[in-house]
Amino acid sequence: MLNVAAIRAAVASLAVSLLLGSGFAQRTQLELWTFIDPSGDNVRSETLAHVIDTFEVANPSIDVVANVIQWQELDPSLLRASRANRVPDVAMLYSPSVPPHIAAGTLMPLTDYLAEWSQADLEDTVILPQSVGNDGTVYGLPWEMRVSGIMYRADQFEAAGRELPRSLQELREAAVDLSRNDLVGVSLGFSPKAPSISAGWFLATLLGMGAEVINADGTAAFATPEAEELVEWVHELVTENEDALPQDVALLGNEEAQQIFVAGNALMLPSSSQRLEFVRENSANGDQIQMMSYPTFELDQPAPALVQSWSAVIPRGAENPDEAWAFIEHWTSTEMQVMQATQAGYIPVRRSALEDPWFESDAAAAIIWAVEYAAEHPMDFDFPEDTNALYDVWARMFERVLTGQMTAEEGLAWAESQYNQRIGD
Hints:
Elements: H1 4-22, E1 28-34, H2 43-58, E2 62-68, H3 71-84, E3 90-94, H4 98-104, H5 111-114, H6 119-124, E4 141-153, H7 154-159, H8 168-178, E5 184-186, H9 196-208, E6 213-214, E7 220-221, H10 225-240, H11 247-250, H12 254-262, E8 266-272, H13 276-282, E9 289-292, E10 307-313, H14 321-331, H15 334-344, H16 365-376, H17 387-402, H18 408-424
Parallel strand pairs: 1-2, 1-3, 5-8
Antiparallel strand pairs: 3-10, 4-8, 4-9, 4-10, 6-7
């Protein structure tokens, strides 16, 4: 574990020395908006604390002040703050939330800062398309990446003498056959309050089935045979067996669905790679929790890998943009990316980080799985400007279908209409 206390003691000691030697020099307060509390005692909190503390040691005139905000609220809070001209210096934004901010003009272009980077640094750093404007301007750098897949209980499959599912049909059979009153087959929730995991699974699987999803003009292409088949698959999973995917579980959000899995009461959980170490740390099942690719209806034909990230952005109007950029550079450096991978299981955004010998160890297996999955099954999809609207409409559609208010066909037609109205407003 990171020796956070020792690092903080070093920061405090250095601060005292500076004050005694230079007469209470002015220190810059760098405000960071984050959904991870660096004062927490879990692996993600300790990892962020290490990033902050090592930055402060290297930059003794800067204090990073963390303002903790729920992850679902970071996007709308930053929009409100921009309108009120009271923005932080650095903020975390989930990759699907970045395009609306680019369109709204709330983010500072990173052009001048990146112009000072070498070509080697530029080629070494992964920048997802969602953080890039139509003219090629970069507005954010990812500080971690994640690849979506299915967490599963390896011990349960082994005890049943069962191979891992290689198609959606096999996944449904496993969920039905291995579930029981204390073990949900698959914990997959479609609540509009937190639909990113379920909607991301739906998107990746649809693309793997050959569906178009969005027309060339930006309108919805939801009412397709592929989408109807997939919605029916979920509906049948809910109705076929009361434990495979109970209706009340199917109506939960991401965090509640994950809690069921962490508690040991679910066999499978659609999730993403950056959550694996956190789930293992908080579950009695530990290393028995593994990850596999999203299957499709075709045997041994995985869905394309959904790669997303949390990016660090500098809001337009930030009081300390140069210091903010220095913090982002530190955060995305090879050294910090290796540290984050070893401590929290984050996929590095620096390709050079993968050259560290640690990535050849068994401990790095999940990260290597994610990197190889993304490389072998890349996703070719132009995300809409408002991905949140896409995910929200799908979640509300599933609520209606899974509670019997609509058939799959009716729900998809309704979702098309709703989405087209949203983008037309």
